[in-house]
């Protein structure tokens, strides 16, 4: 029996709009569409909502396995959290930070500039200044249209840094913030334009290097609670059976979308029903609708069969986008021992296995939690090791920053979204060399009744929950405007 017949045997439900993916973007789109009086179905492949935000209790410890931080410029997220009745709390940052120099020596410091040599600090300041100027010049909305777009997009960030500085330590330190800290790819694998977009989306490169800005606050109860609260208000069907017509639910879990049938411009599949132009077939439910919002990252578009196929340039573009890879390491201790040493828990070291570490203690928790990040090629290296050897090496890296007490956590967990079936990477998609200026202008273009919404396509809030929410709201607004104009 063909896949299409299996899906076609289900009883279809009818909605104005069907949304693929119940992460922050998809749920925000559904929320805004419902507010505009549209009927919606959200189809989610997983058995949970939240996408790349995910909280869980591991060995008795509450951990934010996915995205978690909010910066002051992420106003859409902050406003939504307030609207949903969710509280936020500030990340712990009192005390000195730790810098591990290229020679392995450990230094404590205050402020945002690493305690490197005077020359290295001057070179870092110079690079930050140049990137700030480029971020202001290029902007976040249409970086591909900037005068220097092709020039910046055809050179790797690694090479760009070294063209602008002969200080290797300064180049590596600046690289932490984009390569390891954001795009989770080696700096030779993405362009300088992609790095400038990352900076522009946060307001400036200076904001990216200020961990007190970019990692400012967390949601009490975890970032996933933003999605969970939206979904609860919309109505969730958690079952695993085929959905019959007449359900009032909006969000359908365990409903991986396999096929989207859409009509060409000005055409429909059924002449007797011209108002419905889309059929979306999932594992549990088939939805007949007027519009569809695909709210999953670009690396998952190919998991869906589009009938008829998407335009050729869309297919080409998708081949130039990929997610990075990172291990988010959670280590929970009986007490936040580093605070007793006068340390904030923050540490940086370009040559360390974990290039970043932060105090990630939960709101009101007496135990202390550290979070570290092992990204790109360093993650490749340790993923080849047995689990216990990988754990040992990662904890040794944390101990280099904060002391031998870091070697003995009471709970240890590694988040690996690269192995999750419906994510396959972290934190978000970026283009390979030359891809952003070549395809960026069409990445959000609708295809007939299909629109796209995810943090990977955002301007402000790019790669963050705030950007996902902005994209979801934008897709909903565009659908409502287009329908009202007809």
UniProtKB/TrEMBL annotation:
Cofactor(s) in the UniProt record: FAD
Residues that hold substrate according to the record: 373
GO molecular function: oxidoreductase activity
Organism: Kocuria varians (Micrococcus varians)
Lineage: Bacteria, Bacillati, Actinomycetota, Actinomycetes, Micrococcales
Classification via Pfam families: Amino_oxidase (PF01593)
Family matches, as InterPro entries: Amino_oxidase, FAD/NAD-bd_sf, Flavin_amine_oxidase, Flavin_MAO
UniProtKB keywords: Oxidoreductase
The protein, known as: Putative putrescine oxidase
Record-stated family: Belongs to the flavin monoamine oxidase family.
Ranges for domain Amine oxidase: 25-479
Ranges in a coiled coil: none
Residue numbers binding FAD: 44-45, 257
